[in-house]
Amino acid sequence: MFSFIGRSIVQKIITLFFVSVVSFLIIHLAPGEPSQVDPMNPKFTPEMVERFQKEFHLDKPLYVQYLYFYRDLFTGKIVSWKDSQSVLTKIWERFLNSLPLFIVGTILTWTLSFPVGIRSAIFRGGIYDRSATFVSYLLISIPGFFFAYILIILVVTTLHVPVIGMETFGLGASSWGTTLMDRIWHLLIPSVLGATGGIAVLSRYVRSQMLEVEGQDYVRTAKAKGLPPEQVHYKHALRNALLPFVTMFGLILPGLIGGSVIIESIFSWPGMGRMAYEAILARDYPVILTVNFVAAVLVLVGTFISDLLYLVVDPRIRL
Amino acid sequence: MTNHKLPITNQNITLRVEGLKKYFPVRRGFFQRTAGWIKAVDGIDLDIEPGKTLALVGESGCGKSTVAKVILRLIEPDEGKLIYKGNDIVNLSHKKMKHLRKEMQIVFQDPFGSLNPRMTVGQTIEEGLRGMDLSKRERRDRRDELLEMVGISAISSDRYPHEFSGGQRQRVGVARALSVSPSLIICDEPVSALDVSIQAQIINLLKDLQDRLGLSYLFISHDLNVVGYLSDKVAVMYLGHIMEYANTEELFETPLHPYTLALLSAVPVAEPDKRLELKSLSGDVPSPLDPPPGCKFQGRCPQVEERCREEEIGFARVSEDHLVRCWKVGGR
Amino acid sequence: MTDSKNLLSVQDLKVYFRAKDQVARAVDGVSFDIRPGETVCLVGESGCGKTVSALTILRLIPSPPGEIMGGRVLFNGVDLLDLDETDMQKIRGNHIAMVFQEPLTSLNPVFTIGDQIGEGITIHEQVEPEELRKRCVQLLRDVGIPSPEQRLKDYPHQLSGGQRQRVMIAMALACNPDLIIADEPTTALDVTVQAQILNLIKSIQQKASMSVLYITHDLGVVANIADRVNVMYAGVIVEMGDAYQIFQNPRHPYTKGLLAALPGRSRRGRRLHSIPGAVPNPAFKPPGCPFHPRCSFAIETCKTRFPEMCKHGDGHLSRCPVLKD
Amino acid sequence: MTNTQQTLESPLAPKQTRLEELWELFRQNRLAILGLIIFLFFLITAIIGVILTSGQDPVFDPAMIRLQEKLLPPLTRPNIETLQPAEIPTLGIYLLGTDDLGRDVFSRMLQGAWVSLTVGFVAVGISVLVGIFMGGIAGYFGQGHLRYDQIIISCVLITGGILLALGTTYTGVGLLVAGHIYIFFSIFSKKILARRTLPKWFNLLHRGAISIDTIIMRAVDIMLCFPTFFLILTVVALLPASMYNIMIVIGLTSWMGTTRFVRAEFLSLREQDFVTAAKALGVGHFRIIFRHMMPNAIAPVLVSSTIGIAMAILTEAGLSFLGFGVPPPHATWGNILSDGKRFIFDAPWLTFIPGIAILIVVLCFNLFGEGLRDALNPKLREKG
């Protein structure tokens, strides 16, 4: 048990190291220098460029730059090239902005897809199942940005509530009720959008898992014992069907960064995804690399958690 | 008491297995150290004579299938010799082994998994003929001949396995094994997945082919009825060891090892008159990961005594061809 | 046939499986009876419909594609096929219990065996938790599992194959059913363990005087355990009788063929008799007697007329007009 | 022998190839058939589109700017009086309206269809090839171990290559040359050193260090650590804008699933009896891989790749939407939508036409893929 945890941690640290190397190489081997981004900018005089290069060790060999960069990252001293602010503070602020979106989206995904998927599986082939299937295909296939505009048009033209940004600009000191409603409206559409793809994919997966389990011998045994159908479905089948979702539960963590770029930029939501997008536009390498690093850490922590959960949930795995 | 030894009289032996061992490591812990060994095959000796059938009998997990794989050199043995027609083949180079491979073939248990579902049965058989110097025409003729030999009409050579029944697939498997004209065929439970009526067809086929082509069989099985019908000699295996080795007649008439006795008396006979209480052993086969010290059978043996628990037991020769690994017999 | 002495009476049962444009007639008019306290065997090769028949008794046929097309299953005089689902649940496990072939996959891997045995009891009876535990321990002890108290907390994967099958039997015994249906319970086990399980079933049956419907393809097992035997081929029962009649005086070519095809030491040196051909696909069964293409006794009428049951002696019936006498 | 003749048998089931059987099952899924039809329609449109919209004087000119005709809704007739004869749309009508520069949306959609198609196919082609290669190696040769010297040499070669690329010429070339010398040395060393006893350090170098399987699977883990869309965005933003870069980047960031799948499949196939039988017959490694194992593993890979195509099309549209896609003036569905987003209330067709087009095409790939998957699923097949 402990040796499993130990091995897993060591393995993940090694993976993380390689991720840091690879991402560093990708960024630095790509053509184009950050100092050349904006030659028209009057700030970028040759002296400025030189000072800039010195300050960020760009004149040093690559591996030295690598060491400098990760030293700065771990001591928290790393700063953005664009505005010389601390990257970690920046990320933390943006993270707090992204968090409500993420939480609402995740809750929506996980609370909706399970009932839908399970019902589809139990009434397999019925009208409910077929329409759920079709709707989920539709939701998987629809481009997120297109769907976003449909929703914007719908909400703005029918309900006349503004939805862009985190809050309505200039709402100022109105009653707390109005502010709250305003916040909720702003939060709702982006998180629904963030959740749709997840709901569609997850409910399909729940359905197929459930179907798979319903065909197992032990479900037949349970029926042969004379258990009522509810107990057969929700105790014997569901418990087994849920096992693989433990793995998925660990994988929602990285969703914090990955999926939100497009939605956050459409809704001008000042979150992590949008910050990453802006950093890419500005070739702000420290921010890009740090976001990447944080994302990798989240992935690894997520998989670690799901490994552990699996140990707890599945009695067949004992170390 | 000799430790082991087969009779050395017969020099004309297709395959002699001597002291064959295969251990699989069990890794555990932080550094994945080898924490133990599964002694799948723990020093066995066998003699397969030309044109004869040696049966290897035992319950699941006793290591019989590992023996088959090691003999075919699909797994490398850890120790021991495989003497094929007088030459040790364990340390042969890849090139020489490739040639020798064709001398030993295998027929599998599962008629569904043993044929490539994406190849027609004709293609499956031609795989074996590819290495030979044959023209396309000759190859096709040989393929058809092989199919007819096992009782499948040559017209169906362009059919896929899923179009055939289990028994027919098993025939194709036999034809594939025959395609390289081997002298030894390892039959790994070839009839245990088949229904009784089909089983008889395949057994007859194997017997006919043996008579016609002079094949030797290593017949691996847990079904003592089939073994009793088909084999010339029997080796009873338990937890990686051979427990008893004898001519079929002798083994069935006068089984000496308690395990053999238990096996024989556990087989239900299809005659309601003999409906006695089946004599059953208590317990299950222990895990090969940590087998008991001393006699491997001691945990389930009805006649166990102190000596069995302590000392490793060698073979005792009862008669020319009858070896038993038990104190009771050796003590005579 | 409608003997009031019968515990279970299956009459002209038909179960078809529908697939695209084909209909597989898996069970095609099966009738047999089980009297209280006797062991009845259903023998046949794979695909002959024996498992489907057994599952139909408990109405466990997956539907679709399976469909019960006709017949009656009288249990203590009540037709199980007429019961609604809730009444059927009261029969399952309580009056008729079932033991399946693969003990590993038939036990739920995520519940302890204590849970799984106890569950069957709580669903049919009101029991205190302490009482329940005691009963589970006693059941495990009855089926010969050592140190049952500790085993209650084990998961199925921690037991050996033989022990798992014992647990399955304990589960079946939980509510003292009148009938146990055992569907090839020893096929997946080694011979020595098979002998243990067979002895266990026999001893339980004698002790509790319950009826057993034992399904198998192994004629050796049949000879060992059966009071009466039903031989099935291609969805119909071709011969029925007591064990002695079937084994010593078989009256159907298929039964004769099966017995002659058995290998054994006594047959050494002689060719085994083999039945040519293979079991027909249940969707494309030949007309007339389903066995006629493989039968060496077949005459012209066999190809067109489905044979009736012919009586050969006390309770010995066979579906062959040719081998009548 | 007479008896064998007696039992001469021919197959039971009616003759039907796997493909026919598959089609038989596939045909029952009406949605999947719909997907296939739409796909064929899309394929024809894209091919015709690329023919009609390219060249010096295309039949449909997607780049023709008519500022006086901007933001016309679909099915509007052009104002013939204000237009030059050459500027009049080929069909005599703006079938799908015009955009903010007065360009014919229909022509632009035709042009964009080809981009979506090629991006989808090429990107997935790359990822499937890489995935099958890596997965096949991991699954078949995975238990083999790389030796210490091989690892050191490959590190030396890679560092040399990187240094050379970075301009540190002398060290780079030196490392490369040293690496190659060692490779030649180790090839010939067997013959040269055959009779001598080797020094201890040399033997140590020849010890197995790490299994090939471990290396490949760790590489997969590393790739999975990157948030895919973010990674693609970064790389595409850093590279010069071009359609080919996008295809390659999408392809190279999405092979991990295939690798895992093929590896798992190969690991289980390797244990199958028919592979064992092929080995026993003395069939060579490559024939076993390509003739015996690959055909059994490839079908599910191809199925999931149809769904991969859908994902790739979506990704490309997303990139175009964010302004990192195929560079203008070339039209893609993503950048038509992106251009139109400023006019979503005035000219909603600029959003809806490309949006719905993408939706339908992606949907057809998804339906088609799922239909194939169901048809291939042996469990469903048994149930009929």
SSE inventory with pairings:
The complex is a heterotetramer of chains A (319), B (332), C (325) and D (384).
Chain A: H1 2-29, H2 46-55, H3 62-75, H4 87-122, H5 127-141, H6 144-159, H7 176-214, H8 217-224, H9 229-251, H10 261-266, H11 272-282, H12 285-313
Helix pairs in contact in A: 1-12, 4-5, 4-7, 5-7, 6-7, 7-9, 8-9, 9-12, 11-12
Chain B: E1 15-28, E2 33-48, E3 53-57, H1 64-71, E4 79-84, E5 87-88, H2 94-101, E6 104-107, H3 121-129, H4 136-149, H5 166-178, E7 184-188, H6 196-213, E8 216-221, H7 224-230, E9 233-238, E10 241-247, H8 248-253, H9 258-266, H10 306-310, E11 316-319, E12 322-324, H11 327-330
Parallel strand pairs in B: 3-8, 3-9, 6-7, 7-8
Antiparallel strand pairs in B: 1-2, 1-4, 4-5, 9-10, 10-12, 11-12
Helix pairs in contact in B: 3-4, 3-5, 5-6
Chain D: H1 2-6, H2 18-27, H3 30-53, H4 105-140, E1 145-147, H5 148-166, H6 169-192, H7 200-205, E2 208-211, H8 212-225, H9 228-238, H10 243-252, H11 256-270, H12 273-280, H13 285-322, H14 333-340, H15 349-376, H16 378-383
Antiparallel strand pairs in D: 1-2
Helix pairs in contact in D: 2-15, 3-4, 3-15, 4-8, 4-10, 4-11, 4-13, 5-6, 11-13, 12-13, 13-14, 13-15, 14-15
Family (chain A): Belongs to the binding-protein-dependent transport system permease family.
Domain ABC transmembrane type-1 (chain A): 95-306
InterPro entries (chain A): BPD_transp_1_N, MetI-like, MetI-like_sf
Describe the overall structure.
The complex is a heterotetramer of chains A (319), B (332), C (325) and D (384). Chain A has 319 residues and is mainly alpha-helical. Chain A is built from twelve helices and no strands. Chain A is flat. Chain B has a domain of 229 residues: 3-Layer(aba) Sandwich (Rossmann fold). Chain B is built from eleven helices and twelve strands. Chain B has an eight-stranded mixed β-sheet with strand order 6-7-8-3-9-10-12-11, sandwiched between helices. In chain B, helix 3 packs parallel to helix 5. Chain C has 325 residues and is an alpha/beta fold. Chain C is built from eleven helices and twelve strands. Chain C has an eight-stranded mixed β-sheet with strand order 6-7-8-3-9-10-12-11, with helices on both faces. In chain C, a hairpin with a 2-residue loop joins strand 11 and strand 12. The chains are: A mainly alpha (319), B alpha/beta (332), C alpha/beta (325), D mainly alpha (384). Chains in contact: A-B, A-C, A-D, B-C, B-D, C-D. At the B-C interface, helix 5, helix 6, helix 7 and helix 9 of B face helix 7, helix 8, helix 9, helix 10 and helix 11 of C.
